[in-house]
Amino acid sequence: MKENKYITWCLKLLPILIGLILALIIYHPVFFSQCWAVNKTDALQIHLPVNNLIIETFRNHNLPLWNPYFNLGQPILDGFSLIFHPALILYAFFNPWLANSLEIIIVLILTFSGAWYFLKQQGFSRFATSIGSFVYTLCGPVFFLHSYHLDLTAISLLPWILWAFHRYDIVKTSKWLWISACFCLLAVQSIEPDSLFYLFVGLTIDRFACIPQERRRPYLIVWAGILILTILTGLLTYLPLYEWLYYSSRLTKTYSNTFHPSFSNMITAVFTNQWLTYWPYASFYFYFGPAVFWLALAGFFELDKKNYVYRYFSGALIIPIYYFVMRYLQPFELNKIDVFRGMFVFCLSLAMISAKGVGNILKGGKVQLRVSLLVGWLTMALASWAIFSGTYTINKCVVLSLAAVSILISVISMIRKVVILRIFGIFVAVVATLLGSAYFFAREDRHHLISRNSSITQRKAFYSYLRRVEGNGEEAHWRITTFGFTDNTSALARLKSIPNYTTFYNQAMENILLVDNLIQRNTRLPYWMSLSYPDAQALGIFGVKFLITLGDDNVSLLDNNSVGWTKRPDLDWYFYSVWENNYYIGRAFFLNSSGKRYSGEIEFLEDAPEEVVLTVNAQDGDSLGLADLSYPGWEAW
Questions:
Q1: DSSP-assigned beta bridge partners for residue 74
Q2: Residue 49 in contact with residue 492, Cβ under 8 Å?
Q3: Which one of 137, 428, 439, 509 is most buried, by most CB atoms within 10 A?
Q4: How are beta strands 576-581 and 588-591 bridged, if at all?
Q5: How far apart are the first and last CA of the chain?
């Protein structure tokens, strides 16, 4: 009897163990090779510094509302940060690099285990459930998002919330209703608006797919009440965000023709993880692979239209259909909506169909044999094309070749009726096309891994040194700017900087930077803003005291535009060169009656994120200026 209980508990913990093994394989450099699991865009530039700021503000017994370190200051609720995100607990106990790495690894385990428990709840076998969980966790649209602080919560919570919903449907106890509501509340407080919208689309599809034959009205009232009330709790979080959006320039920018591939390009990426022609974005974002295509086709046969799997899949299918149609009809695209962000909802339904397909293939039959033969030869053709075209990397050729061989092995096993070979074929095909591709994506693409000894991770030490030397070890009241690169990690050392990589830019501030020729006009990439001309006098108005260049190339660029800058070799650090602004008179300054700026007796008594206290000795008729953003809520007296 004890042995049975032990085995039962081991089987219940099986998905967590498999998830841990996945994390060890994909992120083994984090465990064994001195790397951090931090992607080099949003995580590095926004998640690390802003999450660290949120925790530091809480430690000072204040509510984090304002980020003084980016640009001229901006709200913390910027679309990439939420102050009640559960992963912030990690930032309270560990350094930001370790906290982000732990978050990525923990969420990978939670995503796989959540999918496993949900699929098992639908009655699939353990092997089929495991394969379906691989499909959900490692297919491109899901795995690509799991390195983003506010998206990873959506992909991990979806199967867990649906699992809680279905537990209530089974046992009908109020406990699971409350657990479901808590899960929804957690989602609202930890997911950015776009992904949150798609998450609730998935929850709504699920509830409609589970409508009972009797007592429909009470059922709809209960679940509509839970979903609507939990969404309303997010108004406190999202209303300030939309206020920031209103004052920003985001609506003047678009992803059009930048991040959305053509229809033929995208179809190639879906099957082979490769662009047909070059496109400046990761093809893995769209990748499913031939193994998923094989299992999904096999899963459609013997699928009862009254079954939950079919109903949920039918509802979720609207997301890829809409997106693929919009990609095909290029002139009619909606430029400001990235519908593909909602593909994780469809991927969960695809995981269920794939789990069904595993069962069908193991049973064999003429239909499954024909499907397997068709997909096997198609994959073999794709692998041959990849090898002989010379445009594919070796690892992508290997992935396609392994998939083709394993699918054809399954074909042979169906003819000879050897079930173990079918299990082997399914397992190898899924591991090769999904785990293999995810592994190479994490290792070779621009995402996920940063060496602990790289210049990127050492920047905080440099910025801290600069603040200690020039700020007397206290809060630096001046700003820095970077020329030739963009870097927000200076905020980790409590240094203010401009311009920055961020989600929204205040429109008035951006227009002034454009008028002063400090930046170039950009209507295509919403996030990137970099210094294009180092005008010392104009930057001095924004409180910039130091300019930092990286490498000899950037130094030579500055040498041609160095009027107003004095080289500070005593502050240079490894590859970083520091230049001091001769026009800097202070972030706070006086304005005389004619509008001329001048320095005077000004002392910062406090320079906190949400309060700046100055003591000044001014002349009659003069005004006091502060090079910070004027934004609703700020008051001066």
A1: 67
A2: yes
A3: 137
A4: unpaired
A5: 75
C-alpha–C-alpha distance, residues 584 and 598, integer Å: 10
pLDDT tens digits along 38-94: 888 888 889 999 999 999 999 988 889 999 999 999 999 887 888 889 999 999 999
Percentage helix, strand, coil, to 5, in the chain? 60, 10, 30
Tens of pLDDT, residues 243-302 = 888 888 877 776 555 556 778 888 889 999 988 887 777 888 899 999 999 999 999 887
Q: List b or e across 536-552, with b for residues whose CB sees 16 or more CB atoms inside 10 angstroms.
A: bebbbbbbbbbbbbbee
- Two structure tokens written together for 450: 């940063």
Q: Is 601 exposed, middle or buried (0-12, 13-18, 19+ CB in 10 A)?
A: exposed
Which of the 8 DSSP states describes residue 261? Answer: P
Backbone angles phi, psi at 620, to 5 degrees: -60, 135
Q: What pLDDT score does 328 carry? A: 73
| DSSP SS3 for 521 | coil
How far apart are the C-alpha atoms of 11 and 126, rounded to whole Å?
9
Q: What integer best gives the mean pLDDT of the chain?
A: 86
Residue segments in the chain with a per-residue pLDDT below the cut of 50: 1-2, 332-335, 553
Q: Collect contacts of 368-371 with beta carbons under 8 A, ≥24 apart.
A: 368/298, 368/301, 368/414, 369/411, 369/414, 369/415, 371/294, 371/297, 371/298, 371/301
Q: What is the C-alpha to C-alpha distance for residues 618 and 636, in angstroms, rounded to an integer? A: 16
Query: Is residue 38 a contact partner of residue 97, using CB atoms and an 8 Å limit?
Result: yes
d(C-alpha 338, C-alpha 447), whole Å: 20
Cα(510)–Cα(525) distance, integer angstroms: 14
Rounded to whole angstroms, how far apart are CA atoms 361 and 359?
6
Over pLDDT 90: what percentage of the chain? 43
**Which 3 state secondary structure label does DSSP give 250?**
helix
* Nearest Cα to Cα of residue 53 among 13, 96, 24, 22: 96
pLDDT for the residue numbered 290? 93
DSSP 65-116: -EE-SBTT-EES-SSS--TT-TTHHHHHHS-HHHHHHHHHHHHHHHHHHHHH
Contact 281, 537 (CB under 8 A): no
Phi/psi at 356 (5° precision): -65, -40
Going by C-alpha positions, the residue among 379, 441, 384, 389 that lies closest to residue 410 is: 379
pLDDT in tens, 180-236: 999 999 999 898 888 899 999 999 999 999 988 888 888 899 999 999 999 888 887
In Å, how far are 81, 244, 334, 342 from 325, measured between CA atoms?
A: 32, 33, 11, 15
Coil vs helix vs strand at 560: coil
Structure tokens that stand for 194 in this block: 């776009």
* Type of residue numbered 209: A
Measure the CA–CA gap between 471 and 612, rounded to whole angstroms: 16
DSSP string, 464-512: HHHHHHHSTTS---SEEEEESS---GGGGGT-EESS---S--BHHHHHH
Task: Enter the pTM of the model.
Answer: 0.91
Distance CA 358, CA 283 (A): 27
